[in-house]
Specification:
It is built from no helices and 11 strands. The chain is an all-beta fold. It has one domain. A 4-stranded antiparallel sheet has the order 1-3-4-9, with no helix packed on it. Strands 2-10-11 form a 3-stranded antiparallel sheet, with no helix packed on it. A two-stranded antiparallel ribbon has the order 5-6.
């Protein structure tokens, strides 16, 4: 199943790595191929709970620049998704 930010109730799905840690900043996850797409996030300070996405500037066709998150896509063997206590296949 392909889960994306456009999936209804996407915020209720959690994606986990093979050790059972929740993965933040997920944009999409394919439960069959284990392909994951996420933005790169950071904490400003170790004691802070605030999280930020790393942004880059791109130039649009009209010459204006906008800030967008840096997004990476890769295969994450052993990753899985859950909605509540239900494992998603």
């Amino acid at each position: 199943m392909l889960l994306t930010v456009d999936t209804p109730e996407f915020e209720k799905y959690l994606i986990y790595d093979s050790a059972g840690h929740i993965i933040p900043y997920v944009i999409s996850f394919d439960t069959v191929t284990e392909d994951i797409e996420l933005s790169i996030g950071v904490h400003r300070k170790a004691e802070s709970r605030e999280e930020y996405s790393i942004l880059m500037q791109i130039e649009e066709d009209d010459g204006q620049t906008i800030n967008v998150p840096v997004i990476v896509k890769f295969k994450l063997p052993g990753a899985y998704a859950k909605k509540g206590d239900e494992l998603i296949h």
